[in-house]
Amino acid sequence: MNAGLDPHPNVEPLNRTRRQWSREDAEAIYELPFNDLIFRAQTIHRANFDPNRVQLSRLLSIKTGGCPEDCGYCSQSAHHESGLKASKLMEVKRVLTEARKARAAGATRYCMGAAWRSPKDRDMDAVVAMIEGVKDLGMETCMTLGMLDLGQAQRLKQAGLDYYNHNIDTSERYYNEIITTRTFADRLDTLANVRDSGIKVCCGGIVGMGEEKADRIDMLVTLANLPEHPDSVPINMLIPIEGTPLGAAEPIEPIEFVRTIALARITMPKSHVRLSAGRTAMSDEMQALCFFAGANSIFVGDTLLTAENPEEDKDSALFRRLGIQPMERDAQ
């Protein structure tokens, strides 16, 4: 009998969402023989999603650089010498022009990011206008603006914001090795404010920052044990940027990255698992393995905030080879 076809004792039934994971249970799954792990992840993926559909999002930096936070991976931090020039908040008209281009290219969700610690009151009117304008185009809206209090989250909800991205980045244990200007608890507080306002949560992290395997597992356990699983879980592979503290970080081994994707799918079966930053460093075969392990969302477009992203023609060619179609909005 092939034991790989038997359910692992620590994996929930395919139609059940579990919200209390221990490190031990998650680690036991992560350490399964690779074929068994991928089989289990794909089986759970098929029970919850069309395995041949991938959700397409477009990300635009609406305010670049000059951020007071000291995130060790980020070129937009004012603490680092990355050579990035800071810019003011983009005009609403330009944001909507870019959103129309994204819609024409097949994106169903438009994500807007600002390099702030938290949004200032003077900027909220423009942010609200961006949300309303993108909604009028028939697209889903997502923003990442830094920390939010409950009042700010409620105002974004009233404007029609669908999703708010606020990553925890890594495990609580490793967090202070990467960021010192805001705490892990600060991030969880913002997630609670977003959730309490009725906005869907987009939350994931970054791997390849020098963390241990246990940190990747703990990060996913934290997400899987939130009161509600994030609707979207972006898994970023670090893009080392010269001038940042992590500019010379060693890349994560590809199989370990795929294992991380698979564990995200298994522990959060109904979440969209986004294959996010770092795809320019991935082979087509590695991306295909990630899709097989349960990733079902990507960012399209040539840039992600300040980093490179695969050209759209290259993504389209890969999708054709794999038989993957863009996910329709009404299928999300």
Can you walk through the features of this model?
46% of the residues are buried. The strands form two sheets. Strands 1, 2, 3, 4, 5, 6, 7, 8, 9 and 12 form a ten-stranded parallel beta sheet that branches. The chain has helices at 23-30, 34-48, 92-104, 121-136, 150-159, 184-197, 213-224, 254-267, 284-292, 312-322; strands spanning 53-63, 109-114, 140-144, 163-165, 200-202, 205-207, 232-237, 272-275, 297-300, 303-304, 307-308, 325-326. The protein is 37% helix and 15% strand. The chain has one domain: TIM Barrel. With 332 residues, it is an alpha/beta fold. The two termini are 37 Å apart. Strand 6, helix 7 and strand 7 form a beta-alpha-beta unit. Belongs to the radical SAM superfamily. Biotin synthase family. [2Fe-2S] cluster binds at residues 111, 142, 202, 274. Homodimer.
The total number of structural domains is 1
The best one-word shape is globular
Helix count, per DSSP?
Answer: 10
**Rg to the nearest angstrom?**
19 Å
Question: What is the CA-CA span between the terminal residues?
Answer: 37 Å
- Determine the CATH superfamily: Aldolase class I
Major sheet description = 10 strands, parallel
Along the chain, the helix and strand elements come as HHEHEHEHEHEEHEHEHEEEHE
The percentage of residues in β strands lies in 15-25%
Average predicted local confidence, pLDDT: 89
Number of strands: 12
